[in-house]
Amino acid sequence: MSRVTTEITDHIAHVRLSRPEKRNAVDPAMAEAIVAAGQALMGADIRAVVLSGEGEAFCAGLDVMSFAQLAAGDPEALVMPRTHGNANLFQEVALIWRKLPVPVIAALQGAVYGAGFQLALGADVRIAAPGAKLAIMEMKWGLVPDMGGMALLPHLTRSDVIRRMTYSATPISAQQAADWGLVTEIADDPLAVAQALASEIAGKSPSAMRAAKALIEYAESGASADDVLIAESRAQTDLIGKPDQMEVISANMAGRAPRFTTRG
Asked: By its UniProt entry, which Pfam families does this protein fall under (predicted)?
């Protein structure tokens, strides 16, 4: 059975972790499948992605059965090679979603632990069920978070929060995660809310949406204020008067939904 399924409807890619009997835990095959799903969408005619997990949990972390397999191998050969640009396979599980040019919305329920937590961090927006539990779980197994979390977390929350969660490995509630900036909002049906948000995004200018995501990523990269201001102006120059923007103006004037012909 496929560990990840992807369905594209109305320019929205619905990507679902499909290993519910293991609470969508990540083993090497699951990691490969998640990365492959993201890579397959790079050139797709999509405007948003909804990332979810089938069953009671979004993703309960690394598959415990994989620990023996990983420990028996050569850690240097397994972890250190940069197989995906500046990342290894397991780091790319989270980072591939930041590399996608369109917004990614994660719908979170149940356990969002370890690998699952870091996967969720790769999304642009995280919608969590009230009962969701989130954790940096690696310390429980004598490890450190190593799936992109340390590249993503400092943009979302405070240093003391990162340290507390890393050192203790204690799960936190969805409300606590929201208070700490790790969850965007809480909803009784996070998948429905994520899908509604994706539909709203898909109705906006695809070229402007892609430019916005790229601009935000650049602004968060540590670029100087001068460089960010230039990047803003360049992005705007590339949008003004172009087909997508003119269609938005026409649609707004006519009181109708825009009809875009470009992929962004």
From this structure: ECH_1 (PF00378)
